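Work package 3, deliverable 3.1, input record:
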Amino acid sequence: MSNDIRNYSIKELIERKKKRRAKVSFVESLAPKLLALCAIISVLTTLGILVTLLKETATFFSKVSVVEFLTSHKWFPFASGPYAEFGIWPLVLSTLKVTMISMFIAIPVGLSCAIYLSEYASVQTRKVIKPILEVLAGVPTIVFGFFALTFVTPLLKMFIPSLSLFNALSPGIVVGVMIIPMIASLSEDAMKAVPESIREGAFAIGSTRFEAAIKVVLPAASSGIIASFVLGISRALGETMIVTIAGGARPIASLNVTESIQTMTAYIVQVSQGDAGYGTTVYYSIYAVGMALFIFTLLMNLFAQYISRRLRRNQHDS
Amino acid sequence: MEITINRKPLDKVTESENEGRQAVHSIKLEQANTTEELPAVFKINELNLWYGQDHALKDIQFTIPEKQVTAIIGPSGCGKSTFIKTLNRMVEMVPSVRMSGEILYRGRNIFDSKYNVEELRTEVGMVFQRPNPFPKSIYENIAYGPKIHGIKNKKVLDEVVEKSLRQAAIWDEVKDRLHENAVGLSGGQQQRLCIARCLAVEPDVILMDEPTSALDPISTLKVEELIQELKKNYSIVIVTHNMQQAARISDKTAFFLNGEVIEFRDTGTLFSTPSDKRTEDYITGRFG
């Protein structure tokens, strides 16, 4: 038996396989093409979106001047004829208010959560907390929206009696809560990636756990942490459901967070739901607003890339 | 040269002496401890340590003298690194670890619940096997220790940084690039930077866990020279895989095997006339 096996030398076996190479090389040559095709699909989709946005935005700006769009602080798209005003600032301010409030919640809580999970929590504790965070991340935004409207707003009203039913504060807080798991999880990954030897170095000169976490691990993980913040901000800028449900539909250019607002996304929802007919100026305005939103998130992402590249260069230069 | 020193005793030793060694071993250890005239920094009493079920250190008992270089030698897995990490309680970072016995540092038991571990680690600094600079500037690496211990004055910090880097014999190489990232230094420079970082908080003892094992011969030589220099002001405990290194730089040597201290005595004596057959076998290269 063992002699039989020896009769087949590996060399012979390889020779035999070689005969079937033709088929293999067909797969080999096809695979990269298929994979490239899939990659191209996502590029084409992005380009398609961009082209649609640009085209319809151009149509909008043939009806409304760019100057008015960027400088006016009045947004009355549904007013008839000459009374209609298309100044994007009320929508931008509303969006920024919600984003700022959400970041006030999500950054401190998410980061603290990441520090706890990465530097303090035992294996068992992590096993409990991580899945809960993931559940929080998986809650549909419509549920968060109703949570904001029916639970958080009444709760806040107990402390701020002047709070209107629709406001910026409540959805801002809830968007923040929604983003906590994202920041916590990405920041924790970044902190976990800091080599243990660096922590040991800090402990060996008498650092407490907190000092090591804040002064050594956190700076070493800063590129990943900042990237998580920026992704969180992008998410808040683009958040739609929560602000549509709990934010209201009153585009006013003010910094007051207790009044009703209308974010860029909520405006697009309102128009898409059929408030305006196809081909009207209002219809085209959602593309201009969408374009503005797109530019915002694009800038945020470019900024994130720039920051993390710069920090990484500082830290891993060798 | 090493070989001639090691071989000499073999010729002199008679069969009967060889048999008697095991018996007198414990007595000799005792003598080595009690006749010690130098002040002690560490007194280790019946130290036992387990990783889960694994008995990693067994009844360790010896005294580490002040302002001397004490080398810990032994084959891989004999507990050298575990032992040195118990001296600043870094070993406690392993979750399954259990210990019994005591280690007196300057007369105080470091396992005492009242003993502040951060305070201990400020007094007992450590240099690791692989250089582990923080991903910060050279200046910030050195200033980190003094800063966390409350020193904020910029002028004082500047002085500490310069003094520590000079002591670690790396000042001339880095003085023009103090604010560049330490990760850009060579391995040997990084290790001396880590020594400087350790010196910046003015420790009493420096623990070194195979500090040259990741370095090239020239960097190794520099670190060895540095250890000779530091000995004047600091007590040093060094784990080394390299017996020649132990012979070159240490005053006392402890030979570890399977979690036990087989022999602890003056380095010269241990390498020329080891009293235990196992030590002799190890240092003459029969195993390990």
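The longest strand of chain A covers residues 75-76.
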